[in-house]
Design brief:
The chain is α+β, with helices and mostly antiparallel strands. The chain is built from 6 helices and 12 strands.
């Protein structure tokens, strides 16, 4: 098959049922729990709490994406899958997998002819497990028989947080050169690799932090609890202002200079006289 194949209509399988993923067969339910979660999901993304490790306060981490894999245990005819399922794309010239999407939970799966499946776009491990079950059910309705055990694994969790203060990245990379790298000409963020738990931080001068590489949600909170005292040590205390101006005067002077550069030059000449 050389052309692009896309199915977005209300196609049905041999049994006449639409592939909306609302029902699950018993064979598609035997997936082990990925991790135990205690937080509730929301439309904006799952939020977990982490201790700051200093004052006993809490920091909020918002999960942005979870990537996971599963094995169906049966070889697939991708052309047949793309023809019989809705919300699918298949272009073997560009990519050798069927791209299938679900509305609830909102997720995307890459399904390969070997039976391997990658699920991404979910924001909680519960939804990741549910999405994998629904994709397996859809494949079963097409005419293939997945294994009872899908070998479900979470491969990567990405979360974001804001520590609430600006950070001196130059001082941080100098003091922690064994774990951190900072090349502002190439990327504005500092890359900090934590050994245990094994996660990677992208730290920005504004205080925004991206956490990636975790395989469990608890790793996100534990990693941030360890790193927060280090970030607090390199907190920016003084914010640079224009010379000769402070506080609100600095803001007013900067606004005047940006609005009318010529007036700023005239004021400078008068001051010299």
């Amino acid at each position: 098959m050389s052309g692009r194949m896309s199915s977005t209509g209300g196609s049905k399988d041999k049994g006449g049922a639409e592939h909306d993923g609302t029902a699950l067969s018993k064979s598609a339910l035997a997936i082990p729990d990925a991790t135990t979660t205690t937080h509730t999901t929301s439309l904006a993304g799952s939020v977990i709490e982490a201790s700051d490790g200093v004052t006993g306060g809490t920091l909020l981490i918002r999960i942005q994406n979870i990537s996971c894999t599963a094995t169906l245990g049966v070889r697939l005819d991708l052309k047949k899958v793309a023809l019989k399922c809705r919300n699918t794309e298949f272009n073997p010239r560009r990519f050798g997998a069927v791209i299938m999407r679900l509305r609830e939970p909102r997720s995307t799966a890459l399904i390969f002819s070997s039976g391997k499946m990658c699920v991404t776009g979910v924001r909680s491990t519960h939804n990741a497990t549910l999405a994998a079950k629904k994709f397996a059910y859809i494949i079963e309705r097409v005419g293939f028989k997945p294994n009872d055990f899908l070998d479900f694994k979470v491969q990567n969790i990405v979360g974001t947080t804001d520590v609430g203060f600006p950070i001196r990245l130059e001082g941080l990379v100098y003091a922690h050169s064994a774990f951190a790298s900072y090349e502002p000409e190439l990327f504005p963020g500092l890359i900090y690799r934590l050994v245990s738990p094994r996660v990677v931080f992208l730290i920005f001068v504004s205080g925004k932090v991206v956490i990636t590489g975790a395989k469990k949600e608890i790793d996100l909170s534990n990693a941030l609890t360890k790193l927060y005292p280090v970030l607090l040590e390199f907190k920016k205390v003084h914010v640079n202002t224009l010379p000769g101006a402070s506080g609100s005067n600095a803001v007013a002077a900067a606004s005047t200079a940006l609005a009318d550069p010529s007036s700023a030059g005239k004021e400078k000449q008068l001051a010299e006289v």
